[in-house]
Structure formats: structure tokens, C-alpha cells
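Ticket #4471: structure export looks truncated?
Reporter: QA, pipeline team
Priority: medium

Steps to reproduce: submit the single chain below to the structure queue and open the exported record.
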Amino acid sequence: QVQLVESGGGLVQPGGSLRLSCAASGITLDYYSISWFRQAPGKEREGVSCISNRDGRAYYADAVKGRFTISRDNAKNTMYLQMNNLKPEDTAVYYCATELFGCSDRYDRWGQGTQVTVSS
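Actual output as written to the record:
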């Protein structure tokens, strides 16, 4: 059974940091592009970041560029999203996901999500 399980969300003040983790089982993340996307109440799903299995590069949405860092640990079959200098507009449910080819926001599988709330 394939599972992606996120953790690390929570409540943080503006300017703070969180590190999200996504542990995979039943699949080998190394074969896929890995992505994070988010969805805020009343808003459409938004791709946040991705590491492409085509070129190995990391891609970021303009809204998070310079503040978020995506990474993967193939030995642990886990992906991460380091989020620094968080802003209230980053509040959303964050999901990890896999993509079959490149980074195109066409997600193959995703987890159950973890809530991130940025508020003073």
C-alpha cells in the first residue's frame, strides 16, 4: 500500500520557521519528481515547490522563493520542506505529492496534508 504521510505543521508567528516532513512507504521516492502544494480555505490548490526527476532541479512558486527550501533524503525515503520567514498568507494545508514526469502540478499521489497556521 502506497502512503505519503506529512508531519511538522503547526502554529507559528510571522517570521518564524517550520520544517515539514513527508515519509513515503510502498514507493521509492527517488524514481519520482517530488512536490509540495498547499490549499488555503476558499482558494485553489497552489503548487509550492518541486524537485524534478528530469533535471534534478528545484523549482519554487514566486510567493515562496527565497524563503522555502525543498529537499529529499533518498536513504530515508523522505522529503522535506523548510519554511523560513513565514507570513500569514502562507497559512494553508500543505500536501506532499509525487509526479511521474517533471514538475507540472500533475500529481500522481499525495498525502493527507498538514495544517500550517501563521498568526500572531
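Status: closed, not a bug. The export was complete when the record was re-opened. Leaving a note from the reviewer for reference: The chain has a mean pLDDT of 96.
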